[in-house]
Design brief:
Blueprint: H1 2-11, E1 13-14, E2 17-18, H2 30-50, H3 64-67, E3 71-74, E4 80-82, E5 85-87, H4 90-103, E6 108-113, H5 119-131, E7 136-139
Parallel strand pairs: 3-6, 6-7
Antiparallel strand pairs: 1-2, 3-4, 4-5
Length: 145
């Protein structure tokens, strides 16, 4: 009798049930889900620490005189316009800039230069602006057509 049960087990049936000799082919997804949850938690913790941004100084509200931007434009012929006031010499421009920035709390200026003006003239103008007490010089680029 023992020998008969052994023969049946070798053939793959025991007590009327068939026993498969093949291994289980379905993947076990439980460890995969565990790994994915751990990775999700790691990325949720690390992501806020790696974010970087730019420090931006927003303009402050002020009176009408303080909130007007000062724009210096150097024209093609070399004359300087300061908020549509034409200055033929750099000395007159420097005196006017000193008057403006003596009492002005925001010491910034926008400068726009025609493309035909030599680089040396632009650097000399920037030096003149710095001597007048301006801290921040912003360049206005040429607009594309």
């Amino acid at each position: 009798m023992i020998w008969a049960n052994f023969k049946r087990a070798a053939r793959g049936s025991c007590r009327g049930q068939e026993v498969s000799m093949k291994s289980k082919t379905d993947p076990n997804v439980v460890p995969l889900c565990d790994i994915l949850l751990v990775l999700l938690i790691i990325f949720m913790v690390i992501t806020p620490m790696t974010q970087q941004g730019l420090d931006i100084k927003l303009p402050e509200l002020g009176t009408d005189d303080e909130s007007k931007a000062i724009v210096l434009t150097i024209e093609k012929d070399g004359t300087a316009n300061l908020n549509n006031e034409k200055y033929l010499t750099m000395d007159a421009l420097e005196n006017r800039l000193r008057e403006l920035y003596l009492t002005r709390p925001g010491k910034s200026i926008f400068i726009q230069v025609h493309e035909s003006i030599p680089y040396k003239t632009v650097i000399n103008t920037i030096d003149l602006i710095k001597k007048s007490g301006v801290d921040i010089i912003c360049a206005i680029p040429k607009r594309y057509k």
